[in-house]
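User: Show me a protein chain along with its predicted structure.
Assistant: Here is one chain, sequence first, then structure tokens.
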Amino acid sequence: MLTNDPLIRMRSVPAVAVLIAMTAPIICAMEVKMIARVETINQTPVLTLNGKPHPAMIFFFNSSMNIGQENLRPQVEMARSHGVHLYSMPFVNWPWLEYDKEMKPVPPDYTESTRILDRYLEVDPEALFLLRIWSTPPHSWKGWEQLSRAELALYDDGSTGMASLASEPLWKAFLESFQRMVEHFEASPYGPHIIGYHIGGQNSTEWFCDMYREKGPDYSAPNQTGFRRWLEKQYRTENALQSSWGDPDAAFQTAQIPKFEKGRFPVRGIQKDETLVSFYLLPHDRPWVDYSRYISELVTDRIMDAAGVSRKATQGNKLTAFFFGYLFDLPGSMSGHWELERILNCPDIDILCAPYSYLPLEERLSGGSSGAMSLIDSVAAHGKLWINEDDMRTHLIDKEKELPVWLSEEGFGKQTSSLSETINLLKRNLGFVQTHRGGTWWMDLIAAGSFADDAIWGALKTEILPKWEKRLSNPAPYQPDVAILVDPMSRYLCKNDWDLSFHGLTLLRNNAMKSGASVGFYLLSDFINGIAPECPVYLFANAFWLSDSYYPVLQSRIKNSKSAFIWLYAPGFMPPDGISLERMRSLTGFNLVQNEGIMGSLGKGLLEGLSWGWPTSNRVSPRFVLEDSRAETLGVYRDCRLPSSGMVHTGQQSSFFLGDFEISPDVLRRLFRAGGAHIWTEGGEVVHTDRDNLIIHSGNAGSIPVSLPAGTLLVRNGEGLKTDPASGKVEITSKAGETHWFEISRSN
């Protein structure tokens, strides 16, 4: 074994042979071709199969587990009988290129991999497959014998891991083997049953660098060589490199991947009495910034290479899918996931995906937000389809007998407590992806029969699929009231690996979804380039770094807008060549000074009675204080009572600055309302709405007042709900953990 990662082991081992039917291929007579695409219809990404819109609802079963394989048939039967025919699974045991002693290619044997498909086709002859491919060779691959161990990832402690992402021989072998495999299956009777190829790499197929959170960078020879080549391409001259690094001895042939820093890995939060240092100090820390950019660009290059091979081998008729863009969930500057804009601009990529968020784990259960790890609305705005992997630990799992050690509750979350909770959480999650124009797969990750209940599939068929199909019959883009703008490029400048991203991005996403407003998540560059929609409110989550080319365009867009703008923490503080308070002032319109200290604010004025911010006694560097006579104070730091937050009105435009990170739902709700967003509920419920449908999920039992826009009516099961004419509100009664779906009707 090349790795001890249990997720990799789970996805790599073949299914137990005795459980695989030794039968001739079971092929349904289908159309000669299957053309699967993500098409943009009315500015909305839509999955189409042979030209017809289709709900992106998929069932994933882990057919590579060596236990639980008896749970495949009943769940596929349930999926089929309730109108779901799209399936995904670990597609393993397909043959990589091998050579005999005379270096002649060994004829490939596809028997084992076709048996995987036969197991589904035997139960559902209409089965269509999104095949999950692993880009690391199987352990049985004879090519390992000719490969140097130098091609494996090497860590500071001397241990080795899986194949280095930078290994050129291995990557070449994958692309050639993958192309041959795709061409084989596309030309086979299985071709019409395949809608696409989901290509995985690195940790658990999710394309973030293996073991980087635990052990730091990969110091192997291939990665070191790759880094030096990147530096040469980036800087072109050694004088430029030396100037950027502040090192007169820096050279392309001797530059090193940044040295392992004791105490930094495994990635962790700030400990007691430590100061949170948010950003790398330039030029001293420039090697870390460059390594972070290099590794992200390498991941992106690999993904785009694989997508190109898939597109060519399928003649453009099948989908390509990748895990990528975990901006809200991955810690550290060197994860490999920050080049999202390049990925979204790649024409060979159709689908991006991730499990719905694990952070924090309780957000997966009743009352939680269950958000996407990435900027789901930018994905849609670029014509790609986002798919949330719903790997829920349902009540059907026998925790004592079926939950493996590596899938601990501490690491991956508790299971649902009942059928009712399972169905309500699935409805919540489906409400999210449908509102944001995405899709999902229900994932039986450990082959435990997680979805083996007709009631679950029945709720999907009767309550959800009809609404989904109705949306697809007349697609329209999602139009939120609030756009949260995130900048992946700024992640390269963040020295703090955990706290800044968790409290500043992860919890911001979760809390915004509980603000009662309709919220979308976009790239900062999509706002600058006019791709993000016009919204009453824009929130700049982490606009720490702005290139010289983007800065004036962003200023112009803000100047010519009537929207409200909310700035968090350190906007514009890290321009290309070092820190700049002047750029912060010019960008935001607030006079800000640097004043190190403790985070956490007490509300004033509009935010009177509220408190928010990072709830520790750690000092933060940098911290910013408002010294602006034009600004109305909205908050003061609790340690020194200096202004942390403020508001300025200029003509028809309002601007807000909050110097903290970790902003509560209550604070966001007041700011969003002040900026012109409609607030549907005020009790911390999770709200999803696209102006035609309203989904409300509540963790608490009781009455929920719902505020309706003028001239609208809530409809459930064909009947309008009574609206109080004085308040414009509807009172709905909710059980704890219940998810409510309504249609929104408009009076003429």
